[in-house]
Write a structure and sequence with these properties.
By secondary structure, the protein is an alpha/beta fold. Helices cover 50% and strands 12% of the residues. A seven-stranded parallel β-sheet has the order 3-2-4-1-5-6-7, sandwiched between helices. It starts with a helix and ends with a helix. The structure holds guanosine-5'-triphosphate (GTP) and magnesium ion. The site of magnesium ion has 4 residues, from helix 3.
Length: 302
């Protein structure tokens, strides 16, 4: 995993050798506002999976904070019940260059866990921005977690995040306002149904269940597990499993190509030339698209 995270040539050989052994894990994305209980929920969820003899790989991703040491340490504490169990593997990933870079590094680590034979691979991301949508949408099934009384409950969840949810968990259901949060989610679902053109996952004949959970006690976590299993079955019976796999792999290929093509251009075109193009843009002598064209041409890509 360290090899892969450092992204050297050895990592590529390793991933190439392991790739034929991937494609078996159910990849589950978990996202939601900071502090809503994602890690605690993953912890309870994993304990329940282990009772059913399922092995679980966990990747905790924090794309936003460069100071994630504390958060990751916190995750370790919240997931400490899982320590020492060979059927569980936890890996934390912090910010690593660009968002695209992080998404790719996460995909690589997920592949390793998949190849290692983990039945479930959980990817927990912090926050509800574009970064999280990107990382979470690389999963087969996505749990969006909310907690009552967090800002405006559901308002905290922007469009985009609503749309990638396959299962909603209203966590901290031991607190006031859980029913309110459930109602608000249901209303948003109904609104979504009546809106023409809500493309993407909303359209796939699956109505995301809304499940109340108390992650600290494990209440509702069995329902969450069945909800996810039902979703996995739904993906298989409707052949969407294949289409999601295809979409996931094609996104990954595209991300690798972006990275590689840019890296090769940088190797071929002297930095001074790039600076010169930027100078001309600053002087309003050159527009950005034309500048890009010239850069591509210098690198041999007309
Ligand atoms: N009352 C109550 N507290 C909870 C519940 N689930 C989690 N908590 C508490 O909420 C706090 C945050 O939980 P985390 O699991 O760290 O939340 P998180 O979403 O992973 O947080 P970040 O990773 O920082 O975004 C902790 O103090 C938990 O003990 C719950 O169901 N009920
Ligand atoms: Mg967490």
């Amino acid at each position: 995993m360290t090899l892969v995270e450092n992204n050297g040539p050895d990592a590529r050989l390793l991933l190439a050798a392991l790739f034929p052994h991937t494609g078996n894990a159910h990849i589950i994305g978990v996202t939601g506002p900071p502090g809503c209980g994602k890690s605690t929920l993953v912890n309870s969820f994993t304990k329940l999976c282990r009772k059913g003899e399922l092995t679980v790989g966990i990747v905790a991703v924090d794309p936003t904070s460069p100071f994630s040491g504390g958060a990751l340490l916190g995750d370790r504490i919240r997931m400490r019940d899982l320590a020492g169990d060979p059927g569980v593997f936890i890996r934390s990933m912090a910010t690593r260059g660009s968002l695209g870079g992080l998404a790719l590094a996460t995909a690589d680590v997920v592949q390793l866990l998949d190849a290692a034979g983990f039945d479930r691979v959980i990817v927990e991301t912090v926050g509800v921005g574009q970064a999280e949508v990107e990382v979470a949408s690389a999963a087969h099934s996505v749990i969006v977690v909310v907690a009552p009384g967090m800002g405006d409950d559901v308002q905290a969840i922007k469009a985009g995040v609503m749309e990638i949810a396959d299962v909603f968990a209203v966590n901290k259901a031991d607190r006031d306002g859980a029913d309110h949060a459930v109602l608000a989610l249901r209303m948003m679902q109904d609104l979504g149904k009546n809106t023409i053109g809500t493309a993407g996952r909303a359209d796939d004949g699956w109505e995301p269940p809304i499940i109340k959970t108390v992650a600290t006690t494990g209440e509702g976590v069995a329902e969450l597990l069945s909800g996810l299993d039902a979703h996995r079955m739904h993906l298989h019976t409707t052949k969407q499993y294949e289409s999601r796999e295809r979409a996931r792999l094609s996104r990954e290929l595209e991300a690798i190509l972006q990275q590689e093509v840019l890296a090769r251009l940088r190797e071929r075109v002297p930095t001074a030339q790039l600076e010169d193009l930027v100078d001309q843009m600053v002087a309003r002598e050159l527009d950005p698209y034309t500048a890009a064209q010239r850069y591509l041409a210098s690198g041999g890509l007309e």
